[in-house]
Amino acid sequence: MPLSSRSTLTQYLIEERRRFPEAGGALNALILDVALACKAIARAVAFGELGDAMGDAGAASVQGGAVNVQGEEQKKLDVLSNEVFLRRNEWSGCLAGMASEEMAAPYQIPAEHLRGHYLLVFDPLDGSSNIDVNVSVGSIFSILRAPQDVIDSGRDVVEADFLQPGTAQVAAGYALYGPTTMFMLSVGNGVAGFTLNPNLGEFMLTHRDVRVPEDTREFAINASNARFWEPPVKRYVDECLAGATGPRGKDFNMRWIASMVAEAHRILMRGGVFMYPRDTKDAGKPGRLRLLYEANPVGFLIEQAGGRASTGRQAVLGVAPSSLHQRIGLVFGSKHEVERIERYHREPPPRELRNPLFSERSLFRD
Ligand code: AFP
Predict the structure, then answer these.
(1) What is 218-353's CATH topology?
(2) Nearest CA to ligand 1 atom 20
(3) Assigned superfamily of 3-207
(4) Which of 23, 98, 113, 158 has the most Cβ atoms closer than 10 angstroms to its Cβ?
(5) Has this prediction a pTM greater than 0.90?
(6) CA atoms of 157 and 27, how far apart (whole Å)
């Protein structure tokens, strides 16, 4: 398709806004600032070792590098990406506050700037532990409305203001820094995908009305955690691995990139199921992924594209958050597979799985 006939992200947003004649344009301005932050991060990522942003951040920490609120090692690019998100979004008057994977507490809009109606929550660089090996990474964001009293009073935001279920998201999306840089977005009217034209520095609409196929033969899970999985997950994976001769009657393929944003993108493009379920590895961590800035925005996109996102037990978007950095079990992707996994969580396990040593047939035996 010739360049001139493609919409830009700006054009797409203006057309979407026509559905809301009363809208003042702040949401569009905010999304464009987020997209600009993502373009800046894409450049920093693309320079790799040629830039000055590779390796671990800081010196003062338990492991020799800096650690974030999750106790995870921070890369220089994590810190830089967080700064880019803050600087690009704090000035516009669209936001009442921000929260990030990389900051323990909510970020207040500095006094010299106006405060607005929205809250921005983000993981500035998901998958960054893979950055040194040049695997696709990305930025994930979620936009919420600020509570009315925050808007009316202009008071500082507190953690409780951000504890809204995923269904309350106004918009969500991610940028993927892969062979091409992409920006995937939902403003609650399906999912659109934009590819960065490096000549123009513009995100161009390349994927209109993205749909996740309801069925799949592809699943993604970190199999090194198999001994910690709960019976419904063991059952599901075992049945996939049994392939054409097992109860599913078809062969499955497995993928694991260890960069959730990249897995989400594959699933949006061609279907599949992703699992980072609740497990028994660490009683203090009911899952690996974070609810507010990983599970909810990705869940919003997947559901807007006709897929399903779940904790295994309930729709992830319906979960009432209890803390800013809450972790949660997450299963998302092709609708029929996720519904099957939810059914396995409801049903009593089949007899062979009731054995504490799990099944003799299991390919991931304890
Ligand atoms: P990082 O942003 O610290 O690399 O974490 C990425 C992530 O949260 C998510 O993107 C992956 O699905 C998951 O971690 C990978 O975890 P494993 O190390 O267990 O494979």
Answers:
(1) D-Maltodextrin-Binding Protein; domain 2 (3.40.190)
(2) 258
(3) Fructose-1,6-Bisphosphatase, subunit A, domain 1 (3.30.540.10)
(4) 98
(5) yes
(6) 19
